[in-house]
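lol forgot to send this yesterday, sorry. struct tokens for the thing we talked abt
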């Protein structure tokens, strides 16, 4: 009987998810802390994810010949992912009631505990990464990459662009309604400044010129969602001891995947009537059809870059194929 590559891929993804879930459960339930309530809220928030970013860390590490265990970094990036979702759901941000199919952390534990559980997951991420027994210089570089991708130059910066400039959350709280082309716009210089100070050109390839609102939305997607995927692939390469050009290409591949991932999420959200009217998204800016084309282009670019890193059989390349087929109905 012939091998079915899709089945193999899904099995591999599922086995990575399970391994990360189990390690996460151990890391949090075994965390020595005298305040059970915060540990309970952290465990609650950390459960139920697809673990895509952690899986990319582990598989990229292995594919690039990494020796040893990259699990602490897979956990770290998933803890950061969980914290970002907990904070994103807070009333001062996206004000969401549900997450991962059940009440959001702050709906179960209260708003203050939501803030604190997010804080505790973010800090535990770095504590966990620091337990890695990989070569110390790679661990330090990995921790730096993690902080960079998650922070002001990366995901947090993207969230700021998404929220808008108001200190009290207005105008445009959680709507992106401040982006160029909308009422109450932040200036293009402010948006460009966010990219410049992030030093993102080197890590992410060329940035949009931001001459219209769609470019600003693209930048927001790249920072808010792309950066953590970029970081996942970079981490796998850094920890495996890959040369600089491979680390950079792997990062770009992760970024391309994350960018497509966010476009597809917004298209799906809109088709389910889930996106609030004021939310600024690429499909709204350029049409669903053009946004689908852009997502397909980004997924193909992801695959090309991964192939240049060593092989189309890397999990990230197969993930790109899977999204092309399952979300866009396109052949790889
Ligand atoms: C609060 C600093 C801070 C950042 C939040 C990424 C983000 C920034 C917010 C998430 C908003 C959101 C739901 C965007 C849609 C795309 C996306 C990143 C979905 C969540 O990622 P998945 O589907 O989630 O990988 P799981 O639950 O599988 O981990």
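and heres what i got for the seq, position by position
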């Amino acid at each position: 009987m012939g091998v079915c590559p899709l089945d193999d891929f899904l099995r591999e993804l599922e086995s990575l998810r399970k391994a990360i879930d189990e390690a996460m459960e151990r890391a949090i339930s075994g965390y020595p802390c005298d305040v059970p309530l915060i540990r309970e809220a952290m465990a609650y928030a950390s459960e139920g994810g697809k673990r895509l970013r952690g899986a990319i860390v582990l598989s990229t590490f292995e594919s690039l010949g990494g020796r040893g265990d990259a699990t602490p970094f897979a956990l770290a990036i998933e803890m950061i992912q969980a914290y970002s979702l907990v904070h994103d759901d807070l009333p001062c941000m996206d004000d969401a009631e549900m997450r991962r199919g059940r009440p959001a952390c702050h709906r179960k534990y209260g708003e203050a505990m939501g803030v604190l559980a997010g804080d505790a997951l973010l800090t535990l991420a770095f504590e966990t990464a620091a337990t890695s027994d990989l070569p110390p210089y790679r661990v330090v570089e990995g921790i730096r990459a993690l902080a960079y991708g998650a922070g002001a130059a990366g995901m947090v910066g993207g969230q700021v662009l998404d929220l808008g400039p108001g200190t009290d959350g207005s105008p445009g709280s959680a709507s992106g309604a401040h982006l160029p082309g909308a009422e109450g716009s932040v200036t293009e210089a402010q948006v460009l400044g966010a990219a410049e100070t992030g030093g993102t050109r080197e890590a992410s390839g060329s940035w949009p010129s931001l001459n219209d609102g769609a470019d600003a939305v693209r930048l927001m997607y790249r920072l808010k969602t792309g950066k953590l995927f970029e970081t996942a692939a970079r981490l796998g390469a850094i920890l495996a001891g890959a040369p600089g050009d491979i680390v950079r290409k792997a990062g770009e591949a992760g970024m391309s995947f994350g960018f497509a991932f966010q476009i597809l999420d917004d298209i799906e959200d809109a088709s389910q009537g889930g996106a609030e009217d004021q939310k600024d998204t690429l499909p709204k800016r350029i049409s669903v059809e053009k946004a689908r084309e852009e997502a397909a282009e980004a997924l193909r670019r992801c695959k090309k870059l991964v192939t240049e890193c060593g092989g189309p059989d890397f999990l990230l390349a197969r993930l790109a194929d899977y999204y092309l087929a399952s979300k866009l109905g396109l052949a790889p």
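DSSP finds 15 helices and two strands in the chain. anyway ping me if u want another try
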